[in-house]
Amino acid sequence: GAKMGCFTFVKVMMILFNLAIFLGGGTLLGVGIWVKVDGESFLKIFGALSSSVLQVVNVSYLLIVIGAILLVIGFLGCYGAQKESKCLLMMFFSVVLIIFIAEVAAAVVALVFTGLAETLLTGLVTPLLKEKYGVNDTFTHIWNATMTEVNCCGLNNYTDFNNSYFYETHGSYPRQCFGVSPSLAHPHLRGCFLQGCFKQILEEIRTNAGVAGGVAAGIAALEIAAMAVSMYLYCRLDEK
């Protein structure tokens, strides 16, 4: 009787928890599709969330992907627990485990290969900055928004724009490279952001590492708990 009561309680909690995930995923998916289809009305209602329409489009893809993943996880967990389906519970466990492993792998790669990432990005992005900035609107919008938000210039520093299409055409560096008092002269003038975006982004990450680590630990704990509960239900179904 006590075992049966415990099983029922865990089952109900599993259903409610995954129902919340399912509804949250549906909401994110809906918002993502809305932003993708009609980003302008979204901005009018919620304000200018970014200086680039392209960023809104990128956010929409992110919301759609996360929403879809949460929908799948929520459905498998909720329906699997409600129907007491071993197959669905195992699928739920497997999907959450894959996501957990991917997150751990991403964290390890981020810690170990930061220097390698900088070298690779320098080799790939710097030539693109020289060729595409000021030519390709999409590419230019992304970099303008990034440099404005992060207070940086180029990937490594302002010299990434030396001998670039933009510098050759305008005879200056991008105005986003300058601080409070914009200038079209040389970047050594007061107010120029001499630091590159890669180092600035790394600095931002380090500054907020505590918060990010806490959030990551919380998500990992939820994933581990979800896997443990699904495996508990899976194993108890053998005893029923």
From TrEMBL:
Its main location: membrane. The gene is Tspan1. The lineage of its organism: Eukaryota, Metazoa, Chordata, Craniata, Vertebrata. It is found in: Lysosome membrane; Membrane. Keywords: Glycoprotein, Lysosome, Membrane, Transmembrane, Transmembrane helix. Belongs to the tetraspanin (TM4SF) family. CDD domains: uroplakin_I_like_LEL. Structural component of specialized membrane microdomains known as tetraspanin-enriched microdomains (TERMs), which act as platforms for receptor clustering and signaling. Participates thereby in diverse biological functions such as cell signal transduction, adhesion, migration and protein trafficking. Regulates neuronal differentiation in response to NGF by facilitating NGF-mediated activation of NTRK1/TRKA receptor tyrosine kinase and subsequent downstream signaling pathways. Plays a role in the inhibition of TNFalpha-induced apoptosis. Interacts with SLC19A2. Interacts with NTRK1/TRKA. InterPro entries: Tetraspanin/Peripherin, Tetraspanin_animals, Tetraspanin_CS, Tetraspanin_EC2_sf. Pfam families: Tetraspanin. The chain crosses the membrane at residues 12-35, 55-76, 88-113, 211-235. It is a multi-pass membrane protein. GO terms for cellular component: lysosomal membrane; plasma membrane. PANTHER family: TETRASPANIN, TETRASPANIN-1. This is Tetraspanin.
